[in-house]
Design a protein that fits this description.
The structure is a single chain. Helix content is 30%, strand content 17%. It has 11 helices and 12 strands. The longest helix has 13 residues. The structure holds S-adenosylmethionine.
Length: 323
């Protein structure tokens, strides 16, 4: 469907839990205990009901995220159920990859098209420091298995000035022999992110240009999403940049977000939207649910204002919003 600024909204991001099996230092405070009891979370049936109405309204692509989506029970089944909804053409998952390896085959047969795997260090000790868990090996084996199975693989990397800036070239080199995308995502002032200084994508691109020759900038197209891409000669994969801080891509925004607690968010940056769980549990009719979702999508804000102070700013961390 088209929102009031003329944008085509066809992408739904569904968070399925706030829990995570890692605690990245720029995301969640070490002492945070996430304890979302099951009845606070949307059930699989409730998620599918909302997704069905969203599909009626023109949603074609779904991404499952969290927290860490793979800690949710029977997540493979949920992917299958969502994938079988009429109108849904593409299903993806965003994960830290720790629990992914053994679930990949089922995910693939249940219709998953690809995985985005978050990874901020290729060094075991640093990975442990950054995520507070010694799990790098599990993540790397998940990446290789996903590629073996022919799934689309994107690696999402956040570069923080005093933590992993010296690994930019190592990350780019991952795309030399592997057919995957490395995407640098700028750190946003959300959750613990407020306490760190992210490296801008402009600076990252300059570092890449100093180290590689024959770089082509790819033209953006409808399928690029918020990323812009470069390709380095003879590299199998490519490198992308998602720059919410340095270049706002809100005019092309095509997404809405459903939190694990059933709140439909119009934009990452603001706290407003609608509590669909409350309405579902009060037995809202399908028609009224459809209308509520329509009204909220239609009314998406024009743009985020990370750099300015404003009312209704989102105060939740990424694991609560669905990163
Ligand atoms: N657990 C899954 C994962 O690791 O991909 C999904 C949720 S996680 C919150 C999603 C993404 O949000 C990760 O790539 C993480 O790096 C990113 N993230 C968390 N806090 C962020 C922040 N303040 N700014 C930018 N990205 C952030």
């Amino acid at each position: 469907m088209i929102d009031k600024f003329g944008r085509k909204i066809d992408y739904l991001r569904i968070s399925v839990t706030e829990n995570c099996n890692l605690k990245c230092i720029y995301c969640i405070d070490e002492n945070t205990i996430v304890n979302s009891s099951n009845d606070k979370l949307l059930s699989d049936d409730e998620i599918c009901k909302i997704a069905r109405e969203c599909a009626h309204l023109g949603i074609r692509k779904i991404r499952i995220t969290g927290g860490e989506p793979l800690v949710r029970k029977n997540i493979e089944n949920l992917v299958g159920k969502l994938n079988s909804i009429d109108g849904i053409e593409e299903m993806y998952i965003t994960t830290n990859g720790v629990l992914l390896h053994d679930k990949l085959e089922t995910f693939k047969s249940n219709g998953l098209s690809g995985v985005n795997i978050s990874l901020d260090s290729l060094d075991r000790d640093r990975f442990k420091k950054l995520t507070r868990f010694d799990k790098l090996r599990d993540v790397l084996s998940s990446i290789d298995k996903a590629l073996e199975l022919g799934l689309k693989v994107k690696i999402n990397t956040v570069i923080v000035d005093d933590i992993n800036k010296d690994e930019i070239i190592d990350f780019v080199n991952l795309s030399k022999y592997k057919n995957l995308q490395i995407r640098f995502i700028e750190l946003m002032p959300i959750g613990e992110g407020k306490k760190h200084k992210g490296t801008s994508n402009e600076e990252i691109l300059n570092i890449i240009k100093e180290n590689f020759e024959n770089i082509q900038v790819e033209n953006r197209n409808e399928r690029s999403g918020p990323a812009s891409y470069i390709k380095i000669d003879n590299f199998k994969g490519k490198v992308g940049f998602i720059s919410p801080m340095s270049s706002c891509f809100c005019e092309d925004c095509n997404r809405i977000r459903l939190t694990s607690q059933g709140f439909l968010k119009k934009c990452l940056h603001y706290n407003y939207g609608v509590d669909l769980k409350k309405h579902l549990r009060n037995n809202i009719s399908d028609g009224d649910l459809n209308k509520l979702i329509y009204d909220n999508i239609y009314d998406k804000p024009e743009k985020h204002l990370f750099m300015e102070s404003c009312d209704n700013k989102e105060n939740k961390c990424m694991n609560q919003i669905g990163g």
